[in-house]
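testing teh design pipeline on a random one, pls ignore if ur not involved
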C-alpha cells in the first residue's frame, strides 16, 4: 500500500478509485429539491447565504476534538484544553457584530456550550476514545469531520439504461456515499459515531421516537410517495445518513478487530440556544446539551431479525434509488412540484435564477 493509501485508510478517507461519490449533504439537498441540487452541485452556483451558525459549529467542533485528542481525562481538564483552543479560534474569527458587548456575549455562549459538553459527555466519551485507541490499530478516531462511507449498488433499472435520456452505458453499477462523524468512541458493547450538528430541529419526530415501526416508517415511506402530501426531507435525510454512518462504522469496527460490537450513531447539537440561560447583569451564560441516538428509530425489526445487525432494508433501498436518480441526472422537480413549491422554494437561494420558480411566479401574476 502506498503512503497516500495508508494515510487515507487511517483517516477514513476513501481512496480515489474512480468510483462516483456523493455526499450526504448533496443527498439532503436533492431531497429538498432536485433542481436545487443541480444548481449547487452540477452547475456549481454558489448560494449567497452567509451562515454564522455554521462558523460557530466549526469552531466548537474543532475545540472539542482538540480536547478529546489531548491527554485530558476528566471534565475540568477537557474543558481547559477546549476553552484554550476556542480562545485562539475565536480571536481569529472574523464576523461583524453590532458591539463589543455582542461579541463578548457570543463568546460566552460558545464557552458555556463547551463546558456543558464536557460536563455531560466529555469524561465518558474521552475514556471511550482511549479504549478504542488501545486496540493498537493505526486508525484515526477523532476528527473533526472524520469521513465514513458506504457503497451502494444502483437499482438494475438504472444500470440497464432505461430511466431517462441521460442514462447510458457509462452509468455506474455502484456509487460511494460519504458522510462524516466528529469522533468515534467505545461504549460498553457498542462503537458509537458522534456528529456535532447545529440543532436537533431538523430531526422532527426522530428526536422523540425509539422505534422504526409506526409513524417513523410511515413518514419516511410517505415522503417518497409522489401521491402523498407528506414532505419530510430532513427526516428522510437523517435516516439515509444513519444508514451510511452505521455501514461506515461496521467497516471501521472490522479494522479495529471488534466485529462483535454493535454500531450506533448519535448527534449532539452545539448551536441550539433554546436551553441557554443568560444572566445579563453578571454577563454569564449557562446551557445544557441533549444527545439523540438515531440508531433506534432507524432499525427495523425485520432486517434486524434476519441479520442481527442494525439495518433497514427500506432506507437502504431508498438510498440506492436517490443515488441512482442523482447519477443519472434526474433534476426535473415537476413530479413533486406542489410540495417543492410550498416547502423548498420560499427559502431557496436559487429562486432568482430558477426557471420553474420564475414560471410559477408569472403564472401567479397572470
Ligand atoms: S426555487 Fe424552488 S424549484 Fe427552484 S431550485 Fe429552489 S427549491 Fe427548487
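output:
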Amino acid at each position: 500500500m502506498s503512503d497516500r493509501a495508508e494515510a487515507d485508510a487511517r483517516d477514513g478517507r476513501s481512496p480515489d478509485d474512480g468510483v462516483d461519490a456523493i455526499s450526504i449533504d448533496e443527498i439532503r439537498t436533492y431531497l429538498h429539491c432536485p433542481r436545487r441540487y443541480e444548481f449547487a452541485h452540477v452547475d456549481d452556483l454558489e448560494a449567497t447565504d452567509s451562515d454564522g451558525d455554521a462558523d460557530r459549529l466549526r469552531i466548537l467542533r474543532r475545540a472539542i476534538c482538540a480536547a478529546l485528542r489531548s491527554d485530558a481525562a476528566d471534565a475540568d481538564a477537557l474543558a481547559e484544553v477546549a476553552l484554550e483552543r476556542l480562545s485562539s479560534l475565536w480571536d481569529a474569527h472574523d464576523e461583524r457584530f453590532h458591539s463589543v458587548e455582542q461579541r463578548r456575549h457570543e463568546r460566552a455562549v460558545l464557552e458555556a456550550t463547551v463546558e456543558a459538553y464536557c460536563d455531560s459527555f466529555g469524561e465518558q466519551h474521552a475514556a471511550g476514545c482511549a479504549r478504542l485507541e488501545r486496540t493498537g490499530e493505526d486508525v484515526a478516531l477523532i476528527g473533526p469531520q472524520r469521513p465514513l462511507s458506504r457503497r451502494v449498488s444502483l437499482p438494475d433499472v438504472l444500470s440497464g439504461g432505461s430511466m431517462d435520456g441521460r442514462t447510458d452505458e457509462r452509468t455506474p453499477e455502484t456509487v460511494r456515499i460519504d458522510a462524516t462523524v466528529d469522533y468515534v468512541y467505545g461504549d460498553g458493547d457498542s462503537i458509537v459515531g458522534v456528529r456535532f450538528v447545529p440543532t436537533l430541529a431538523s430531526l422532527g419526530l426522530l428526536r422523540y421516537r425509539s422505534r422504526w415501526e409506526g409513524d417513523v416508517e410511515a413518514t419516511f415511506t410517505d415522503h417518497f410517495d409522489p401521491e402523498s402530501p407528506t414532505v419530510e426531507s430532513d427526516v428522510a435525510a437523517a435516516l439515509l445518513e444513519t444508514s451510511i454512518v452505521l455501514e461506515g462504522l461496521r467497516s471501521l469496527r472490522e479494522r479495529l478487530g471488534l466485529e462483535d460490537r454493535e454500531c450506533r450513531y448519535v448527534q449532539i447539537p452545539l448551536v441550539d440556544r433554546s436551553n441557554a440561560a443568560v444572566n445579563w447583569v453578571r454577563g454569564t451564560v449557562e446551557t445544557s446539551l441533549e444527545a439523540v441516538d438515531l440508531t433506534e428509530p432507524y432499525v427495523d425489526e425485520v432486517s434486524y431479525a434476519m441479520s442481527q445487525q442494525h439495518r433497514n432494508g427500506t432506507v437502504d433501498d431508498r438510498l440506492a434509488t436517490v443515488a441512482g436518480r442523482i447519477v443519472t441526472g434526474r433534476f426535473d422537480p415537476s413530479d413533486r412540484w406542489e410540495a417543492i413549491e410550498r416547502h423548498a422554494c420560499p427559502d431557496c437561494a436559487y429562486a432568482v435564477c430558477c426557471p420553474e420558480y420564475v414560471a410559477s411566479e408569472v403564472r401567479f401574476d397572470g
